[in-house]
Structure formats: structure tokens, C-alpha cells
DNA sequence: ATGTTTCCACCTAGGTGAAAACTT
DNA sequence: AAGTTTTCACCTAGGTGGAAACAT
């Protein structure tokens, strides 16, 4: 089985600067969104595909403006309720999954520990790593948004180092802001002089 | 097993006037959309839920303005490629289906016999009846958008007389137009004097 | 000080019927 | 004359970062 990250060039441009992702109470999408292509599945078996996001380390960070760098600012906050994003096409046959690019663009990040929308709960100012899970569906098995992914022979877990990010409630590095505005269609209103009329 | 039509009051108001549905080349949604609630499924079995739309009779119609009535205008045009709308949540467990209102609002009608978007192909100026199919998923079975629904013990077919309609490319009865504008949120721009400024 | 929340103008994406143009 | 296609202003629905207000 093989999983390829799509849009890897864009991820690398963000990664070189130090990717930041906004988290809000209501939930905010990631940009870029994770998109993968899978091969080597059994076309006639059923699989769930899910994503979770794990801490990269046990630290809390702060952004130092004059050096444009993230510095350790202490130990991580206490753990947060674990959440799993189950790709909405799940469960589907290997054939179905392999035919398409699998996009996680509807996944949302929140800093609300009491969230009841099924969004992924994270701490602000921490570093995280998204992971993709390919889970062979055994008969009768059901997945939950709020329980850890089942481990074992039927589960493969993949992650891509260039997709790590730091959570923020407002962008710290202006180069990140600029890249987001430049590439995210929904931020088009902030491009060029589009907003220079107030 | 039991299937209840939701929004039945609105359907009846349309039906009393004589429901019309626009069909276009690109595909047009139905308004109202079919919405049903199902009970009596086996919570742990898998089901597909699908919709097709069959001719009510073998006739072609025309609208007579001065009597505000649809009159037979000859025999039906030659049959059209059969299409099935597979509800996007399919397949799902009986438990999942019974927990929600099942909406067919994304289903689209077209008069383009060469349509490749998977929309339901119909003749203009004909009378039709939508049908809901609840299909018990046998292992390995796959459904197709372009083949008839499998018949047999594993399939239940339901229809609601108040949801019959006549296809048009432009509304014939102005009472239908008024009801649509009044109730469809997307037609809000035509309400009251909202458009009386040109 | 530093980080968070709320509100908002500006977008994307796409569903309406009207009107004009087109077809037969 | 009758029906169809195309285009369009006007909506719904919801994803952006900025700015100001708020919190600690």
C-alpha cells in the first residue's frame, strides 16, 4: 500500500516558512488542506480513511518577532479530548478510494474543548502533525469521532513531515499570511490592493 | 418497514394546483425536494436508498391557459435513458438511515438525453412519479446510476401520489411560479417588490 | 503585554425565475 | 405559435483575514 501527498510543493513552501493554522471556537479549515492519493488497496475490501492530529512534542511555543522564529515557551498544556475526522466517503471499497484524490478539506480545527461539532480540538501555540489512517473494515466494526483509531494489522498510519504546523488564533509570521492570501481562493479579497480602499 | 413523506402539507398545496418541475440541460433541482423518514429497518444491516422517476402514463401534455388545465396532447415521446439517483449516504446501516431525515435535495432533473452528470433524464411536458427504493445490501452487490433498481425480496419501493409533477422548461401555471417564489429560499429575490426596480 | 473573540467586508460556489434570443 | 436555451441580477450558504473589542 502506498499513500502520496498531493500538492506537496505548496506544503513545502509553507513548511520552509513555518506553517501556521488558525483555530477558532467555531472551527476553521486547514489551508492547505491535506489531499492524498492511495494505491495498493484490495479493490473489493471496505476501508475507512480517517485523520487525527497529534502533538509533535511536549512544548508550548511563542513567536519571537525580531528573529521571526518560534521559541519554546514552556511545557505543553494538559491533553485535549481526542478527536478523529472520519472521511465522509467512509466506508468505501478500495476501488473507490484509489480512483479519486482523497481530500480532507472539510476537516475543521477548534480550540473549544467543549466542541460538539466533531471538530478536531487543539491547543493554541503548540506544534502538531496530521496523520492519515487507512483502516480495513472488519464486519460489524463501527468507528467513532471521539475514540482513538483502532490499532493492529488492519490499520496503516501515514504522516508527512512537511505538513506539521503551529496553531495560532492570529497569524504570527506575515509571510504565512501573505502565502495564505495568495493561495486560498476564499482570501482573494485581501489580494493586491483589493482591500486598500478603506 | 415504514416510510413517511416529510413536508407533506407543502406537497399537497403544490399538488392541488398541479405541480410543475423545471428541467434544463445543466440539471435543475426539484422544489419541493423529496424528504422521507424511515422506520422499521434492521439497525445493523446495510441499505442503499435510491430514487427513480417513472412516467405516470403514456401521454404528452400541453397547458391550456384559458382553462388553467393540463390536457392530453398526444402519446408520450420515446423512452429516455433510465437513471437512478443513489442517495449520497448509501450504503449505510439501518440505524444511520432511521436517525435522520433523508433528503433528496441534491437530485437534479435534465432534458439532456446525452447527460453525463448522472442526473435524471426526463421528457418535457410529461407527467412523472418519483419513487423511493430501500435496498438491502447483499454482500458484494454494487449499484449503478444507469441501471434499473434490482427487484426482489431485498427491495422495497414506495411512492407518494401527492409528489407527481409535470415537467416544463418554463412554468405554465402562474400559481405554481408564485408558490415556488414564495417558498424556495433561492428565489427570494423575486418576492414582493424585490424585483420591481428595473 | 499578549493572546482571544467578535464582527465584518469580501470572496467562492452555486440555486432562483425573468427576459431575451433562439429554434422549429 | 409554441417550446427551449442562454444569460443575468439576486439570492443562500459559508470560507477568508483584518480590526477592534475583550480577557487575563
TrEMBL record, chains A, B:
GO biological process: cell fate specification; morphogenesis of embryonic epithelium; positive regulation of DNA-templated transcription; somitogenesis
The keyword DNA damage is assigned to this record: no
GO CC entries: chromatin; nucleus
Domain T-box: 5-192
Keyword Transmembrane: no
Compartment(s) of residence: Nucleus
One GO molecular-function entry: RNA polymerase II cis-regulatory region sequence-specific DNA binding
Name by which UniProt lists this protein: T-box domain-containing protein
Organism listed in the record: Oncorhynchus mykiss (Rainbow trout)
Shown stretch of the complete protein: 1 to 198 of 273
Amino acid at each position: 500500500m502506498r499513500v502520496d501527498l498531493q500538492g506537496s510543493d505548496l506544503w513545502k513552501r509553507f513548511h520552509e516558512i513555518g506553517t501556521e493554522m488558525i483555530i477558532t471556537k467555531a472551527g476553521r479549515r486547514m489551508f492547505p488542506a491535506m489531499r492524498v492519493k492511495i494505491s495498493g488497496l484490495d479493490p473489493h475490501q471496505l476501508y475507512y480513511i480517517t485523520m487525527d492530529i497529534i502533538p509533535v512534542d511536549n512544548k508550548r511555543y511563542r513567536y519571537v518577532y525580531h528573529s521571526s522564529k518560534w521559541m519554546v515557551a514552556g511545557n505543553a498544556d494538559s491533553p485535549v479530548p481526542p478527536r478523529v475526522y472520519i472521511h465522509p466517503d467512509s466506508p468505501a471499497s478500495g476501488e473507490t478510494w484509489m480512483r479519486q484524490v482523497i481530500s480532507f478539506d472539510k476537516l475543521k480545527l477548534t480550540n473549544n474543548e467543549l466542541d460538539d461539532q466533531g471538530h478536531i480540538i487543539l491547543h493554541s501555540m503548540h506544534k502538531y502533525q496530521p496523520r492519515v489512517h487507512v483502516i480495513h473494515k472488519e464486519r460489524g466494526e463501527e468507528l467513532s469521532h471521539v475514540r482513538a483509531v483502532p490499532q493492529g494489522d488492519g490499520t496503516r498510519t501515514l504522516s508527512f513531515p512537511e505538513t506539521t504546523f503551529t496553531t495560532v488564533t492570529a497569524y504570527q509570521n506575515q509571510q504565512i499570511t501573505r502565502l495564505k492570501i495568495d493561495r486560498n481562493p476564499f482570501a482573494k479579497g485581501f489580494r493586491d490592493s483589493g482591500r486598500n480602499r478603506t
